[in-house]
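Escalation from tier 1.

The customer reports that the assembly of two entities below gives different structure tokens on two consecutive runs. Tier 1 could not reproduce it. I'm attaching the input and our single run for tier 2 to review.
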Amino acid sequence: MTNHWIDIANSDCILTMGSNPLKNHPIGFKWVMKAVERGATLISVDPRFTRTSKKSHVYAPLRSGTDICFLGGMIKYILENNLYFEEYVQEYTNASFLVNPDFKLPGENEGVFSGLKGEKTQEGYFDGKYDKATWSFQKDEKGKIKKDPTLKDPLSVFQLLKKHYARYDLDIVSSITGCPKEDLLAVYKEYAKTGVPNKTGTVLYAMGWTQHTVGTQNIRTMCIIQLLLGNMGMAGGGINALRGESNVQGSTDHGLLFHIYPGYLKSAKASQATFSDYNKANTTVSDDPMSLNWWKNYPKYSASLMREFYGKDVSLEDAYSYLPKIDDGVDHSWLTIFEKMYEKKIKGFFSWGQNPACSGANANKTRESMKNLDWMVTVNLFDNETSSFWRGPGMNPKEIKTEVFLLPCAASFEKEGSITNSGRWMQWRYKAVSPPGDAMSDADIINILLNRLKKVYAKEKSVFPDPILKLRWEYGPKDSKGNIKHIDIPMVAKEINGYFVEDKIIKGKIYNKGMLVPNFTLLQDDGSTSSGCWIYSGSYTEEGNMSARRGKDDPSGIGLYPDWSWTWPLNRRIIYNRASVDKNGKPWAPHKPVIEWENNVWKGDVADGGLPPMASGKPSCYPFITQVDGVGHIFGPGLVDGPFPEHYEPLESPLDENLLSKQLVNPIVKRFDIVKGNEKINARASHDPRFPIICTTYRLIEHWQTGVMTRWQPWLVEMEPSLCVEIGGDLAEQKGIKQGDKVIVKSARGDLEAIAMVTVRWRPFRILDRLVHQVGLPYHYGWATTAERKYGKIDKKPEFFTYGDSVNILTPNIGDANTMVPESKCFMVDIVKKV
Amino acid sequence: MAEMAIFIDVYKCTACRACQVACKNWNQLKADKTESRGSHENPTDLSANTWNRIRFREVLMPDGKIDWSFFSDRCRHCDPAPCMEASKIPEAIVKHETGAVLFGEKTKELYFQDIRDACPFDIPRMDEKSKKIVKCTLCIDRVTNGLKPSCVTACSTSALLYGPKAEMLSLAKKRVKELGGNACLYPGEEFNTIWALPDTPKHYGIAEAPKIHNYMFAGSKLFSPLGKASLAVGLIGYMRTRTERNQ
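Tier 1 run:
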């Protein structure tokens, strides 16, 4: 979230799209209800009438996978009716920048942007890659970006935006999305009201936006809207991702994904041979004195990370040389890992705190892939579909050689640590009870693993032992042999914050070796500081553990609660908050000020960048300090699939044409189905008469993730015992399916049994001249707790069985062009009554 | 202790069912074996193990809009309580000073069907093992120790509130007024669990308070406790025939 949970209550208009917060974020939803009580409008846009829709003032249905089209229509509406926040757009975004004259929009270039290289089929391009040379700005002789503050130049970002979305008229948007025109207009009208300076709108999105081949661009479309309406940086505004797991924010901040290190530093690439190559490639440069260009500080953060990894006895260059390098252009995302496993190129696998046999898209492929492993270690609370994959449906244990180790671990209440919520609040929590039996915390398991690895590397002559042997490990009290018995979690938190590793004088102030760094503005590029995750620097200082604070004062009056826990960065509760004030530092919305310049200081939240306002005559900065040019990107050349979002059909669609252009699907996505032909394991079935029904996936409030923790809990199973497929009444009638019938849902990749839940909440979409039906199933189920499986002598039987396997049996393994997040929210199925 | 009440603000209920589970958790009630019948509503009925459950109802309205409503079904803690009046053993069912109608050990000596039939809302259930008659206790063991009822504590949207009855009634009335239209105070003022319903009881598929009930209460205030009991007992038969039942 750019903002935070409590801040939702400050909003005038809340758009829930790609999310169903009432069901999936029930505690956080109370802030939505508070906003509504204060008079805010709540909008729900969802293929299915959800519980959030029930509470909403405006509900609009849309066919899954058409969000860009829906929102593109809103951009057109805002621009054509002059409902944007003009001063904000002129001053705080790149709307006035002039674009390279050779740049081409999809409307004039067969549905793709200029610069595409790739192969072409009847559906348009596939497996493409953009040469972004034309996605650039015009520069004057001094190298400064040319601008037209009047926004009238036909090559200005603003005019190009207008031209691009002029194609998204109500008729075409309604035909593609299946949303009636009056519903589209109702949403556009309500949301666009927040374009006035003192009103704000917010968006709450979740996996309904990310799990698409155009997932990142779904969010980008909304970013453009938020910039046009002046909603970024404001109380009750922002772009707010509702996280799907309690610590997803924290784990991503700490480098969970393959392409990033802690603090969103980039993973090292093979082409970056030295530390200076690496820093140079990632450090941005700006000549504009008004641009704070935050990533100019990159070497300070990377050097501090090297110090945390290898300490001050290893040079920064050597520390960098120890890091594994990723081959340029190669991705190691989830889908690719399982593709490699399927190709027998991965031999060993740690499945830590997860259940890929149920959670990964295309579960049959995931399960098949595991057969190719020599060994697998699963760390979990309970046996599950992954640790027991070798005895799951369709498996013959005698033919599977994979050796599986199941390590029992502590649950969240059985260990100390911090959790970072969607609003970036790092909240400390204490251990309530000790883990049972042999179970231990993840940190202690890792500790044992490292000790064993070090022993092996020391004893056996390995080629490159230093990265393991020299790894710094100062996370607990050591015994006489130098080993740590138990990890001390506060010590880990301090290492994340960072230390001065030598005496240092900064701006005349002395910082002694061994002192905790006050915050990341004091991190150094010369190796004198360490920090395990620069954005968390400031969370555990000489003053103590900031995340354990529980102060309940709110001097802001807008729910910032600065003394409750701690928020990255620098305890800033609303990021981009400089955009909430005019050039004189006065809030656009004086009744809910985030920051305000008064008597030469900023009042309120921790101001972005700290410098005085832009019109103060003193050194100042543009509001979007992490962007190299300091402004919000309406034209966003950073993404791989286009500087403006463009509608493409999902990889599996009921249509064989894109009504907007000749390019059917996102041309950049990695196509496993083409690489591997159409074999069942990577199969795709778009516009295929065998699979005429759109299908989506979602969650229930009663179960958690793949259900490993909840399917054993009788009180929860009592409420939701079975996998149900929700289908509309018309479709049920067509298919001869009645309430509660057992049915089989089929996709190109697998068949899945479920109970039919016939409901008025699903209604067909009118697409062109025909009706298209959509159905949906929840995540959470798996074969391990069902009655049908065999239970061995030592297997625990659930008190009540669940019914149904993972919905991922149906989902396709195709990922978003930018992130490789699988398209689990939209694919094609058929449904038949089980006989 | 003062007379207390639970106020259920149905407008705020999101059917998260935290109250349904919290009730089982505090009272250590086992799960009922259920199966999916094509609705999220489960279990299908109150039972010796289920003292509070959310009823779901979805309707396609003539104007094409969808109405999806939720109702937490549980003991209304009537005052006076027809179940108490129907009890042949005085100490088996008592009205606590907090307003809670409590079923004790001696309910196993009562004829269950009499008690169930006496209830206008079909709440009491018998535990097959112990033969005790059971239902919501308004968490008497919590509230007499300074805690709020378990369901109230679990409610994230403040749809459930617990406090002095006068205060709860005034909040409920305020909500009814705000909602307007068919909104109503349910079942009425003479109960220690009260709902602000956005629509009529019929819309939620629940029994209205028997009309006789208010009359009985008005009358009973005039009589001594003994008189109240005898009046009530005399009216039970009348009530049984007049009570609009849920199912």
